[in-house]
Amino acid sequence: MNKRSSKSIPTATHSWHFLFTFFVFGLLTSLNTLWAQPYSREDLAAKVQEFKKDIRGPYKDIRWFCTDGSIRAPKDPCPDNIGPGVQHARYKDVLEDISKKNGIYFGQILAYHSPVEFWDPKGNFSRLKQYQIDQYLRTVDDGWINRKGQYYRGSVQAEDEAAWGMSFYRDVLSKEENLRKYFFLIRNTMKDIPYAEDENLGLEMRSRSKVISDLLPSFMDLRVKIHSSPKRSDITEVERFLSQNRNGLNPDLIEQFNALIGVMKEFHRPFDINSLSGYLGKLKDKGLKSSLSSFIEAHKRTSEASTLIQGSAEFMWEIRQGLLDEVSSSDRLLMLEISLKLEEVIFRYESDWNPGDLREQLKKICHLGLASAASGYMEIWEWEQLVPELSSFDRASQTLEELTFVLERSRSAVEWSTSMFKAHFEEVTELYAGFEPLAHGFIDDRIRGSLVLQLGRAVGELGDYIARESNLVNKVMDLQNQSSVRGLNPGYAMGELVVVEGLTEELEVSSDKIYVFQRPPSDLKPVAGIATVAEGNLVSHVQLLARNLGIPNAALSDTNLEGLRKYNGSQVFYAVSNKGNVILKPAGQMTAEEKALFAVKARKEEKIAVPVEEIRLDVREVLNMRSVDASNSGKLCGPKAANLGQLKKMFPDEVVEGLVIPFGIFKMHMDRPMPETSGSYWDYLNAVFREAEAMRKDGKSESLVEEFQLERLKILRAAIQSMTLDPKFVRDLETSFSSVLGAELGEIPVFLRSDTNMEDLKDFTGAGLNLTIFNTLDREKILKGIKDVWASPYTERSFKWRQKYLLNPENVFPSILVIPSVDVDYSGVMITKGINTGTEKDLTVAFSRGAGGAVDGQAAETRLVTDQSDLLLAPARELYYNRLPETGGTDRQIATFEEPILNTSNKADIRKLASSLREILPRETKSDYRGAYDVELGFKEDKLWLFQIRPFVENKRALGSTYLESITPKIRKDKVIQLSTKR
């Protein structure tokens, strides 16, 4: 017994040790996982507050950092034998941890890092931009995370930071490629990274006035004036305000006022052109010296603001172009410094140029636009697209139509410049705004500190004049500068106004509300009306749905959005006319005619029936796309597959091979028993709609009915996604994949495109409502993707659009188009008519780099293409785009904007394609349709590929509404206006 006991002891001990070891291992694994997790927004916000209260801020201690890499105590400097060193603070451990886990870099000390860490194109220059936003937050929030740490002596050495900056810029500017691709970013960072002793007085002036207004709301009017239109007379106004309110101010606030007045006096100190002479001795290049000397000589006695601004703008443009010549990096840095000084000159003196007539106003706009382009807010090629119209001020007269076109091109200069700031800084702003709301002001401050502010105001003044001449007057609440509001889609709506700032992908929207977005979400659910600052492009899915369904849609400026914030939550009436003028007013001010619009709508809701009479559900084998054509649309499959099959016959070299999974295969699977129910998937679906109708008859509210349906459809969606595919179907798919696409299932990447019978109806387009699986290679992912596509019509967004506009939304049948991926260089959409400008014979095209961006609403390169010319409506402004690797999935890459997307050859191919479609498609399809087409296409190595075609559907009710026609002014386009006319 003892022997048996003695044998049992080690066994038990061994088991106990094993369990204990397993437990410890599991615990450590869990802790490692926990430690590796990024900090939450709440955690980061808490850390920010901790740093603010710490006398060392984000820093741990101060050390010497020697050339050989050694680190020494503050009182033990680096000895001569190991070279000179620099002294500065070390980061707190938690700061290092945050940088590793979140990629967020607080309190960066430049001398702590190599320039390569900051100049990081592959990382979208995140550290560089975070340094800039950190500097901004310090100016508007009393040091921000360094609130007390800014007094931590020795933590940062100004001379070491400036030396680092000088070295950094000389290295970056030594490469011409950097100036071509990243001119905007390089020049913009020079306002934050120290490299000389100059101060950014404009930024300091705005920051100090903001700090005062935050503490003293009665100062807000003066702050707005200082931010939007700074003049020397503002100094007197601030001094008067301080004198009148001094008795009620504490000493700290009085000190803030005195500091602001000092900065304002320095900012408005008259600029002496001769002060630029100091650069002549520093420049090495004789050509640059000569240019600068000529500029100084020509303007050293200039006292007129208009002359000084014109000359400065032209010399800034000369500098930008000259920087691409073969000159040294030190000369490039000096010339950029001069460019920044001249921008400040224009910023200071712009308010003193008061045009007396229309010609002078046009001249002012042209030169402010030129200076903005010279500052990098537009690319060189973009500005060259605008010059012909903006430089037309030498003529004696212009027609009202010609002047209106000049106004549109002037607005483009403002919008393109503004979007440059957003494109580069939106990502880092949203990152920081997640834990520090003050970050939301960063982009606005950048724009207000640039010439875009003055350009926008000058364009607004021209817009006000032309609006009066055209009777094209917007009535948008009490906003200032309403000429910057322009209608995109006609329509009218009434509902609660919701003003949304920042990115919006996770926003829940309501179909009875009117939304004002910085940028609309790419998968927008039904809404009553929209207005956007970043309109994306005219042919994105969101814009096409808005146009198709008569949803009023307008573009507006950041300032307009800010002005509408006070009306957030109020009931409003919103209308966009056929010519693009906009009405937005309180619902209580609606006329009897406007109220009647909604009384009629309540009595008769216009809906469309999905035709199902000819649908073929008996075809249950995978089809070669070559075997279908337009006649099969809505019968065997949806219009994507049918029309692409048609295009394959017409343009065999421009269309890929493809497979079609018809409606019948979906219905076959839906007729199988659904787990945990007494019937099939199809029985369950129809029961949902029967019960919903019974609820309506019982008087239940539509919101309760919708909530019930969405909950039940969520269950159905999950069931479809987890169903087992029929083995015979899988074998059929494998065989067809091999014979048609030339590879085994899982060997080449493919797109799975949802293709339902509810798309491209006569009066309804389902553009973008259902799922597309991108570039999938793995066999199991393809099979799973089929089920995901079948389930996608039952998502909340897709269902809500169908429910709102279709009479029989339950009768949706998805087919699937399976096509091999084409890793296009750029892709986009072509509409075979001019949408907002142009004629029925023109083309509207929008292209983004990589795959799929334009249809998803990216800020794409948008053009009006005619038989002989093309007009750039907007340049691309998306920093990220997708490529499609052969291994499947997507590879996100970073774009630059120095060249247009479409080249001359591409545009010629697009014209040729459009001409062929208009001629051949109606004949081949034996269709009486004569309207425009919506075509998705792409280019790979300049070869055109066709991916989809559908009718372009517009909302005839909105376009033909008697009310909308009544608010559309009758414009005499041929009215002649003398440019000598007083403003």
TrEMBL record:
Gene3D superfamilies: ATP-grasp fold, A domain (3.30.1490.20), ATP-grasp fold, B domain (3.30.470.20). It catalyses: pyruvate + ATP + H2O = phosphoenolpyruvate + AMP + phosphate + 2 H(+). Its EC number is 2.7.9.2. Pathway: Carbohydrate biosynthesis; gluconeogenesis. GO terms for molecular function: ATP binding; metal ion binding; pyruvate, water dikinase activity. It is an enzyme of class 2 (transferase). It comes from the Bacteria. Its cofactor is Mg(2+). Pfam families: PPDK_N (PF01326). The keyword Lyase does not apply. Keywords: ATP-binding, Kinase, Magnesium, Metal-binding, Nucleotide-binding, Pyruvate, Transferase. SUPFAM superfamilies: Glutathione synthetase ATP-binding domain-like. Residues 709-957 form the Pyruvate phosphate dikinase AMP/ATP-binding domain. Catalyzes the phosphorylation of pyruvate to phosphoenolpyruvate. Belongs to the PEP-utilizing enzyme family. This is Phosphoenolpyruvate synthase. It comes from Muriicola jejuensis.
